[in-house]
């Protein structure tokens, strides 16, 4: 999380809203461990990583949905058996659970 704080501070100083996705649990093989985080500004800028690239695009889309109010904060899951996750490239055989929320501080 520390590696994304400078970007978050910069976006917030510019008046942008920011969503953060954090890995909260993994099952089986996973590209990142719990605690890994990604921040997404309302203009679509990205800092950090939650999957080493394999589901980042889907996470950015979900973050933008949370920022626009189309989706509520909460846990999102990507796993090998999940058709959407497979389509975006999570082929490591594991499952990752992310907590996605808008920063209110």
How would you describe this structure to a colleague?
The chain has 105 residues and is an alpha+beta fold. It contains 3 helices and 5 strands. A 5-stranded antiparallel β-sheet has the order 3-2-1-5-4. Strand 2 and strand 3 form a beta hairpin. The two termini are 15 Å apart.
Q: What is the tally of helical segments?
A: 3
User: Which of globular, elongated, flat, extended, rod-shaped describes the shape?
Assistant: globular
- Which whole number gives the mean pLDDT? 85
Rg result? 13 Å
Residue share in helix: 25-40%
- Adjacency order of strands in the biggest sheet: 3-2-1-5-4
Major sheet summary line = 5 strands, antiparallel
The low-confidence parts are: none
Compact description:
This protein has 105 residues and is α+β, with helices and mostly antiparallel strands.
List the helices and strands and how they pair.
Blueprint: H1 5-13, E1 18-27, E2 37-41, E3 46-48, H2 56-68, E4 74-79, H3 83-88, E5 95-102
Antiparallel strand pairs: 1-2, 1-5, 2-3, 4-5
List keywords for this structure.
5 strands, five-stranded antiparallel beta sheet, 105 residues
């Amino acid at each position: 999380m520390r590696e994304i704080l400078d970007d978050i501070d910069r976006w917030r100083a510019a008046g942008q809203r920011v969503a953060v996705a954090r890995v909260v649990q993994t099952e089986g093989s996973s590209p990142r461990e719990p605690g890994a985080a990604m921040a997404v500004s309302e203009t679509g800028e990205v800092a950090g990583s939650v999957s080493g690239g394999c589901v980042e695009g889907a996470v950015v889309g979900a973050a933008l949905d949370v920022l626009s109010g189309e989706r509520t904060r909460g846990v999102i899951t990507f796993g090998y058996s999940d058709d959407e996750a497979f389509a975006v490239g999570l082929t490591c055989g594991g499952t990752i659970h992310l907590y996605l929320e808008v920063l209110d501080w």
